[in-house]
Request: fold
Amino acid sequence: MSTPFDPAEDGAEMSFDGRMSYGDYLSLGTILDAQKPLSDAHDEMLFIIQHQTSELWMRLAVHELNGARDCLLAGDSRPAFKMLARVARIFEQLNSAWDVLRTMTPSDYTHFRDSLGQSSGFQSHQYRLIEFMLGNRNVAMLRPHAHDPAITAQLEGELAQPSLYDVALRILSNTIALPEEVTSRDVSKPYQAHDAVQEAWTRVYETPETHWELYELAEKLVDFEDYFRRWRFNHVTTVERVIGFKRGTGGTGGVSYLKRMLDVELFPELWHLRTEL
Reply:
């Protein structure tokens, strides 16, 4: 039998007394102690970790979307494109997570569903923040967070600045003039599709070689919304598979509410123009 390999012989650090270790850097003690099931149901651990990891990915998505918007506002499009590509892949990761949750059957879920009380993914402030950042700005959705002043302030702060799509339209208007009602609109309100915007984006797609940077920006937005739509669809499918058409724990219509969200278009003109080309 060969002698077991000792990584220290190859220079690996093996002693961390008073020094930063992997677990120290990542605060793994805190993260791995954050799963606290309220029942003895085996699948509750899966349910908790699924949602905690999703929130971590959404935290990164918020970070990247903020960075992309800041770069676009500063006229620095190349790093913004990289960040938007990363956000799309984050949602690809979030999509894959539904596959794991779907291994939980309706019977598994009923063993601990009552432990959730009124808590629901519908109340995720990070998901709400992402929607606000992208332009789906429904002020009524502040109400589930009214009990937390810090979160409410964060969401209201987002409503006070232009969404990612508003910024993209201002950049578009620098090359192809858009009406003032588009470029100077009340950014706290939900965005409404506009014929002039579709005409401008159509010009970009008709001659991409002339408007390559705008063309790439548009495709980065479409790519992201593609993954975002898949995430919403997978959410609906998973919920229907696990609870059918029962109401959600947070009081929403469950599947009926989620299906309504499938109709929301974040960057409508970028999808509609394809019919015109």
Notes: Residues 199 and 227 are 25 Å apart (CA to CA).
